[in-house]
Predict the structure.
Amino acid sequence: MNQVNWLGGANAEQRAAFNRSLNVTGAGSVLLQTTISKVVQMITNRHLGVQSTLPRRGGSGDGFYAQRRTAATTGAAWTDDVTEPKDSEGGYTQTKFAYRTLLGRVKITRKLIATGRSYGDVMATELVGKAEDFANVLESASVIGDSGSNANQINGLLTLVSAVSGQTIANTTATAGDSVYLDKADQAIQKVKGSANKASMRIYGSFKGHRLLNNALQAQQRFLKEGYEIDGGFVVASYQGIPVIESTGIPDVLVWNGSAPKITAFSGGATTALIFVNTQYVFYSELTPMTVAPLAKKSSQYDEVDMYQDITLVLDNTLGATILGGLS
């Protein structure tokens, strides 16, 4: 007897019992196969624009030493054919950028490695995620790092550039900040040494900073050029022929003193900043590139891997970068 005839010949109570046995509530947990993705999704939205686009140069010793010369008081003078020239030499200083160590560790238990084999190599999966976490710490330090508050940390762009007189441009004197003024942005570009070479220039901004610049350009019926390709295959917008690169390491809570002008704190405020950089003068010096080192096995219960890097951020020329502060 086929199923249709059986159901047709059954009484109402039998048909109801059969229907109940096949519904999801009654049998779904047993008969239905749950689909679980084998791809581990990294729940982050990080734009590591600074550390992804600044050059990296090999280093040695305990730090990178920048040799700087200030111009002579009298460079040269027009004269006749009998007057002796006036002696005037430039001044020389040496600035050290100490290497600092960034260190992380991954510890995975033996049982997790065994039970997680459906995802492939569990240790490798964790290391991929750890590398992103590692890079995010470097990105943040590359912007707001301050060895004055943490002696083990590198100095970031906001710290290095703020220490140079005249290299922070006030978008506004208001502590609450203001919309981007394009003449101030142009002034910040012009204050960077070698800014005429657009290929070596970069503009770093947070998501908010990028939007503020874009809004200012649209208000003036000017638009960011799209499709500018930089090193590494990144395609970004540009302003004045300079790539505009987003970084989640730049805070939107900077405390701004427009009358100084300077950024007085990296948190507790309501402003952000744009950073203009010439990569000929701003770069990383690496004593030890990022290295993954498995540790000696000391227990059957887990495996450990260290990730480390010895690095510093260099402002080789004090005129190599500027800050446009007071944006909101």
Remarks:
- The first helix runs from residue 3 to 9.
- The chain has two domains: 1-35, 98-327.
- Residues 98-327 form a domain with the phage-related protein like fold fold (CATH 3.90.1690).
- DSSP finds nine helices and 15 strands in the chain.
